[in-house]
Design a protein that fits this description.
Blueprint lengths: L1 E2 L5 H12 L8 E6 L4 H13 L4 E6 L5 H8 L7 E3 L6 E2 L3 H12 L3 E9 L8 E2 L6 H8 L11 E3 H6 L11 H11 L4 E12 L14 H14 L4 H16 L2 H11 L2 E2 L2
Parallel strand pairs: 1-2, 2-3, 6-9
Antiparallel strand pairs: 4-8, 5-9, 6-7, 6-8, 7-10
Helix pairs in contact: 1-2, 8-9
């Protein structure tokens, strides 16, 4: 897990608690402080460390340099071969780890994710649900167009992450998709569990903010690298890049509709 100064102490505490009460709880939690934190966040971390002695390992970075850089520093500190990702403002349902570890063990997988729901204030009252591919062939095909996993739901093998080159700090907003594509290209076996095991917190204007001209250079840098490495063919590059840029350039209200009505599933 990575945390930075703009995170809410309340959200961080809830995310940590949700991992602590798993039916298969963690043996270690690695928390990367991505730059100096607020007094409130430091208070949550200090309290958690005192209450759960020896469980939390903190990696404190001197300045904020983004999620990819933070996670690249955190992976080597993880003691175990199997690592679960979690975001500092999300919520893991209690059986998440039990089900993901069972799936990984049963099919000898290298990376396992799940469907997720997105919520604004209450994980039990989601606004949308993901519709991700679940089997290896579908995941690989989908990865040529969109990210086939939701980052906070992922469980993966440390050795396969490191063999693929670990997280990169070069692709802001795309550090997870970049790593997953490199892992898939290296032969990693993958699956998604077809039920929501993580609830991702979003703000009311989350979808509207996922774009704008400033977003485009990051899209271009990531996708041109996929083309250069041969992971995307030229036509796959065009097919994923042009629509993505177009969505970035439409008005915020229209972009919000595209995400909530076309790229996500509604929930009851």
């Amino acid at each position: 897990m990575s945390v930075y100064a703009k995170e809410s102490p309340e959200y961080l505490a809830e995310a940590l608690r949700s991992m602590l009460v798993q039916t298969v709880p963690p043996e270690q939690i690695v928390l990367v402080e991505d730059g100096p934190l607020t007094r409130g966040l430091n208070g949550v971390i200090e309290t958690f460390s005192k209450q759960h002695d020896g469980l939390l390992d903190v990696v404190a970075l001197p300045k904020n340099e983004g999620l990819g850089n933070a996670l690249a520093h955190g992976i080597p500190v993880c003691r175990n071969e199997i690592i679960a990702r979690m975001d500092s403002d999300d919520y893991a349902f209690p059986t998440r780890m039990e089900k993901e570890l069972a799936k990984m063990s049963e099919y000898n997988l290298d990376m396992v994710g799940s469907q997720i729901v997105e919520f604004i204030s209450d994980p039990e009252q989601p606004v949308v649900k993901s519709d991700l591919p679940i089997d290896q062939q579908s995941i690989v095909a989908y990865s040529k167009r969109r990210n086939p996993f939701r980052h906070p739901s992922m469980v993966f093998r440390k050795s396969r992450v490191l063999n693929a080159g670990n997280y990169s700090a070069d692709y802001l907003y795309f550090e997870d998709w970049d790593l997953f594509n490199r892992m898939l290209a290296s032969g990693c076996k993958a699956a998604n569990i077809d039920e929501p095991l993580v609830a991702m917190r979003v703000s009311p204007d989350f979808y509207a903010r996922r774009g704008g001209p400033a977003y485009i250079p990051h899209i271009w840098k990531f996708k041109i690298e996929q083309l250069r490495r041969g992971y995307f063919t030229f036509f796959q590059f065009l097919g994923t890049t042009i629509p993505h840029i177009a969505v970035c350039l439409v008005p915020n209200a229209m972009r919000s509709l595209i995400y909530t009505k076309l790229l996500r599933k509604g929930t009851k």
